[in-house]
Every structure is written in structure tokens, then in C-alpha cells.
Amino acid sequence: MKRILCLGDSNTFGYDPRSYAGSRYPPDVRWTGLLRRPDREVRNCGQNGLAIPREAEFPALTALLRSALSLDAVTVMLGTNDILRGASAADAAARMEALLRCVAACAEGFSTVLIAPPPLRYGDWVQSRAQIDESLRLGAAYRTLAGALGIPFADAGEWGVALAFDGVHFTPAGHAAFAAGLRRELDRYLMENRETERENVIKHDNR
């Protein structure tokens, strides 16, 4: 049995943009639910409105990761809310690097997969061209970061993920496309050497 823990914001949580009270899509619509199969357990740790955690929040994250036994992979998809709140792609990547160092320190045999979220588009929640432009830059910034840290990277902007009328949240079809894209990546990454990834991140941190 492969065990995967998914860190993310409302698109990992499965927020349904048609709701007004934080409701979510059912498990068989959310990408985390679609990712499950008889030999793969998926733990959804998405949270509505979550930005990339700051250092003060790392102890809670460490406790979460250490409470999850025998993980094979941790996926991290954050940054959308940082962009919506005015951060640049470079700012988000710097915050993400600190977060990934924290995750690496907890790694005991699991892969850490950094995922760039699909870029924003114009919609009810997105009226700024600057926000869209920064979200478009995020994939390249995260790809560079993952390469420097020696960890797996996936760009959800390449998977044809459909966004709802708000320009932020996945539609049901978007969740299906995301799950299909990530499934392909995980099937490949879970065959790789996790200890090498951990050593690469720690080595980078100690430069």
C-alpha cells in the first residue's frame, strides 16, 4: 500500500465554488479522491485560504508529518493565495523553499513532490492582470527551485485543468484532469530514490 499526504489550499481541500459556506465537492469528484485506488491511500490535508506557511507555523506542520506513519510521498501545492494577496512568484518561491526545508527535515523515506498550481485567469475573484502574470511565472520559479533542491516537480499548468467562473477554483472536470496528470507523475516518482532527494535538500540548505 502506497501512502500519500497532500498539502494544499482550497483546490486540494476540494472547495466547490458554487457554494457560499465553504462546501466541498464529494470525494469522488475531488482530485485527492480520484487519486485513490486499492493500493494507494491518499490523505487530504488541504485547507481553504491557506498560503505558504511561515516559520512560526512549521512546528504544527512537523507534528502533522510525523504523525502520518509510513508515507511514500508528500505533495505540496501552494502559492495561489500568496499571489492573490499580492506576492510575486519570486516571493512565493522563497517562502516555498523554507517550507520544503522543513518538510525535508521530517522526511523518513518519502518523496516530496512540488506542484505548481494552474495559473489564474480572469474571473469573479481575479480582476488583476498583474496577479495573472505572477501566477504564470510561478511554474518556472518552482521548477527552478525543485531543480536546485533535487526533488520531483510537476506543473499542473500543463494538464489542461479547467477553472470555474471565479478564475481560481477547479471545476469537476478540472479535478479529473488534475488527478490524471498527477497520477502519471506519481507513478514515475514513487519508483525513484527518496533518500537521495532528502540528502539533496539538506545539502542545499547547508550551502
Key descriptive features of the protein:
single chain; 207 residues; alpha/beta; 8 helices
Describe this protein's structure.
With 207 residues, the protein is α/β, with parallel strands linked by helices. The chain has one domain: Rossmann fold. It has 8 helices and 5 strands. The chain has helices spanning 10-13, 31-35, 58-67, 80-84, 89-106, 129-149, 172-189, 194-205; strands at 2-8, 40-46, 73-77, 111-116, 153-155. Strands 2-1-3-4-5 form a 5-stranded parallel beta sheet, with helices on both faces. α6 links the parallel β4 (111-116) and β5 (153-155). The mean pLDDT is 92.
CATH topology: Rossmann fold
Radius of gyration: 16 Å
Spans where pLDDT lies below 50 across 5 or more residues: none
What is the CATH H-level superfamily? SGNH hydrolase
Number of helical segments with 4 or more residues: 8
In which range does the helix fraction lie? 40-55%
Q: Any idea what the shape is?
A: globular
Largest sheet report: 5 strands, parallel
Mean of residue pLDDT values = 92
Strand order of the largest sheet: 2-1-3-4-5
The tally of strands reads 5
Number of domains: 1
Order of helices and strands: EHHEHEHHEHEHH
CATH C-level class: Alpha Beta
Structural class: alpha/beta
